[in-house]
Structures are given as C-alpha cells and as structure tokens.
Design goal:
By secondary structure, this protein is mainly beta. It contains one helix and four strands. It is globular.
Amino acid sequence: MNRKPHPPQPHRHHQRPTPGQVAYDPASGRTGVVQAVHPVAELLFDHRVTAQHIAFLRPERGGVEWTADATALRFPAHADEAEGSE
C-alpha cells in the first residue's frame, strides 16, 4: 500500500494523533497506529482508566492492540521533546 506523507501542519505539537496516524504512547513506551478514539462512556468492556477518551492502538506491522489515554498520545517525532520537558 502506498501511503502519501501527511503535509506539515502548524502547531502540530499541540495536536494529538488521530485514527490512521502513528502515535507514541508514553505510558507503555510503544509506538502504534491509532485505530479509534472513544469517550470512556461509550465503552462496554470492563475498564479501569482515569482518562476521558481512550485510544485503541495497534503496532505498525501488526500485532496485539492496546488501549491508551488519548490525551497522552504524542506524534513520534515529538516524543523525545515531551519526555525531556517532564
């Protein structure tokens, strides 16, 4: 599959990755493709999270999906910047 790179966006470091984009999850230290983002109230499974929006991520080359706090996700290029500021 040929994917075209996303054009640069101003103030991207303030935005969060959306479905279809690669994201860094600082809680797990992993990078994956965002599959979906949902408010916690929409989830029907037994979850123990404090976030208001949950992101579902999958490794880029396939594998087991995981959930993460959607507001904590970063673009991979900005992951190092975010870690350095904490």
